[in-house]
Design a protein that fits this description.
alpha/beta, FAD/NAD(P)-binding domain, D-Amino Acid Oxidase, Chain A, domain 2, 8-stranded mixed sheet, 13 helices, 21 strands, about 35% helix
């Protein structure tokens, strides 16, 4: 098929999918290089509710720095008061105000947000139009023919009234799990171990947690708002999220193997399962369920993110990990930065071969490292003592190794990436070692019937051992970064050793000793 003039229409970049990933990339490209012709093709005509409402630090920094959307986010969405964890007893009957808790006592140093995805994505489409992106909604991309060896890509754009043929130098799949490019190139990699699903719903009329409990309980967090936190309720093998949205709605979700059950994935089944947990029930009360959705399997990988034939994938068109820590939007930030950098350089006539190789390898590194936070560790989630330890490891490493370099744009520096990739096998081995340590602590606590012993009445504000938050995103020497990593590792090892019933090591271990294949404790 051809356009009205009988010829194919040409674009420098065609982006398939107008959700958050695609709209942000289109806007980023036009802001970086206004002369690029960018087309954005979205099959839906209206933006619908989606999960993924939590923007954590990398994604928030991306939207604030790359897109100057700070004012927009604060005015149209909700500031996020960090992560907040609650722990129940074995019978799931603890009163909310009696649960052990990990969570901030003040708004976080680095901004993050709770977003209404439908509103954000609709607004981003308009923002993309305003900077000159050709936005086509209600339009399906069909007959995609990926070019090779320098040949351009071709496809048909079909809406209710017409169809047009396009050719483009670059094509980016931002269309989510449908995986248009992944199917064309057989790229999707099934997750081998982490088989968890998710079911979620939006509710109207959820209780305001800041109005519950005693004065003493509210004072425990210095009257900082719990409601604006991403609240997590942890159980052995599964967890719930509770996320407030502007306009009076609340997103509530369940993640774990139990969420793969067909009955639990129905609206009635989900509501029934929620009611079996006292703390959640105290929040839900008689709240009205507005809508409900589910995935039977969340995680998957990809063989490639970007290709020398000038195609790429961003967001869930490429990979998905786990909602725990909300990594999806962080991955969008990285993928869009890499794609934008390569496309703009290619448009300017530069060779992108080295960068493409580095960016590709780094994204695999990030996906592999993210999955090591989850695989085989869901049985440890229900213990305050275990998760307090895992919090220090996961959050400490996130700020020190991932957030800080991103805020300094080090991920776009080939020298930094080469150094990171040389360290990749050692970092991944250290993460495997700590994952194994967490599993051994969990088995020990269960064997001694002490798994739930600290799940009532304890409180941590989460930063007792993470004392460098104010330095995140500022220039730091490589030595300082490594010393902080060593500090985090030793702190977690000492606590794990004590939970295993042994004396904590007297001497601080050197960083390299955590990166071999021998057990840590």
């Amino acid at each position: 098929m051809s356009g009205a003039n009988g010829h194919e229409r040409h674009l420098d970049v065609a982006i398939v999918g107008g959700g958050m990933a695609g709209s942000l990339l289109a806007r980023q490209l036009k802001r970086a290089q206004p002369r690029l012709s960018v087309g954005l093709f979205e099959k839906a005509t209206e933006r619908s509710y989606k999960v993924g409402e939590s923007l954590v630090e990398i994604a928030a920094n991306h939207m604030i720095r790359r897109h100057q959307l700070s004012g927009y986010l604060y005015e149209n969405h909700l500031p996020k008061n960090g992560l907040r964890y609650f722990f129940d007893d074995e019978s799931r009957s603890t009163d909310l105000s009696e649960m052990s808790e990990i969570g901030p006592v003040n708004l976080p140093f680095h901004p993050a947000f709770q977003i209404d995805r439908a509103r954000l994505e609709g607004d981003l489409l308009e923002m993309a139009r305003e900077v000159g992106v050709e936005v086509r909604t209600g339009t399906r991309v069909e007959n995609l023919d990926l070019g090779s060896s320098g040949a351009q890509h071709r496809f048909t754009a079909r809406d209710e009234d017409s169809e047009e043929s396009y050719r483009c130098r670059w094509v980016v799949d931002a269309g989510g799990r449908a995986g248009l490019v992944a199917k064309k190139r057989d790229l999707r990699v099934a997750e081998p171990e982490h088989h968890v699903g998710s079911v979620w719903a939006r509710f109207r009329g959820v209780a305001d947690v800041d109005l519950l409990g005693s004065e003493e309980w509210r004072g425990r967090v210095r009257h900082s708002t719990r409601r604006l936190s991403t609240m997590h309720f942890w159980y052995a093998g599964y967890w719930f999220w509770v996320i407030p949205l502007r306009g009076g709605l609340t997103s509530v979700g369940l993640v774990g193997e139990v969420a793969r059950d067909r009955e639990v994935r129905t609206a009635d089944g989900f509501r029934s399962f929620l009611r079996q947990h006292r703390g959640i029930s105290q929040l839900l009360g008689d709240a009205e369920m507005v809508d409900c959705g589910s995935f039977s399997q969340i995680a998957y990988g990809t063989k490639r993110f970007f290709d020398a034939d000038r195609w790429g994938m961003t967001g869930e068109a490429a990979t998905a990990a786990d909602p725990f820590y909300s990594p999806g939007s962080d991955f969008i930030a990285l993928e869009n930065d890499f794609l934008s950098d390569m496309i703009v350089r290619d448009f300017a006539g530069e060779s992108i071969d080295e960068r493409l190789d580095l960016y590709e390898r780094f994204m695999h590194f990030r996906h592999d490292s993210a999955m090591l936070l989850y695989r085989g560790l869901y049985d440890a989630l229900g213990s305050f003592e275990l998760m307090r330890m895992k919090w220090d490891f996961d959050i400490g490493c996130y700020y020190n190794l991932w957030v800080s370099p991103y805020m300094l744009d080090q991920h776009l520096d080939p020298r930094f990436l080469r150094r990171q990739l040389r360290m990749q096998p050692f970092v991944l081995q250290a993460m495997r070692n700590f994952a194994d340590l967490f599993r051994r602590v969990e088995q020990s606590l269960r064997a001694n019937d002490t798994y739930f012993r600290a799940n009532r009445g304890d409180f941590s504000y989460g930063l007792e051992s993470i004392d460098f938050v104010d330095r995140v995103g500022t220039p730091r020497s490589r030595r300082e970064v490594l010393e902080k990593t060593e500090q985090v590792f030793n702190t977690v090892l000492a606590r794990a050793t004590e939970l295993l019933g042994r004396d904590a090591p007297e001497d601080r271990r050197p960083l390299q000793s955590f990166m071999g294949e021998q057990p840590l404790a």
